[in-house]
UniProtKB/TrEMBL annotation:
This is Tc1-like transposase DDE domain-containing protein. Gene3D superfamilies: Ribonuclease H-like superfamily/Ribonuclease H. The lineage of its organism: Eukaryota, Sar, Stramenopiles, Oomycota, Peronosporomycetes. InterPro entries: RNaseH_sf. GO terms for molecular function: nucleic acid binding.
């Protein structure tokens, strides 16, 4: 599987600066088992969350391991490792050599 970003959807959400403080508190209590004062600043909670960042769990890996498969990621758009890139290159060269006159002509070619 290529390493494109859309293939790497996380199943365990990580806190960001847009996260609500209540969500941050819940996240820290689940992940890090942290005990802290309730009057703590949101920035402090974010820094604690970054310190206790769990390992990323990707949805594709979860599905693959459920069916006893293992995924290997290749670089995106790499012509040697992604055969579809070679096909796209051939198609682009063919269209550039003989450009279609209309949409129907493009489908015909």
């Amino acid at each position: 599987m290529d390493g494109a970003g859309y293939h790497k959807r996380l199943t365990n959400e990580m806190p960001t600066t847009r996260s609500l403080q209540s969500w941050l508190e819940d996240h820290l209590s689940k992940v890090g088992k942290w005990v802290y004062r309730r009057d703590v600043n949101k920035n402090v909670l974010l820094s604690l969350a970054k310190l206790n960042k769990p390992k990323a769990i990707y949805a594709a890996n979860t599905i693959a391991t459920r069916y006893n498969h293992q995924l290997y990621y290749t670089p995106p758009y790499h012509p040697t490792l992604q055969p579809i890139e070679l096909i796209w290159g051939l198609l682009k060269n063919r269209i550039a050599g003989d450009p279609p006159k209309s949409g129907a002509d493009a489908v015909e070619k």
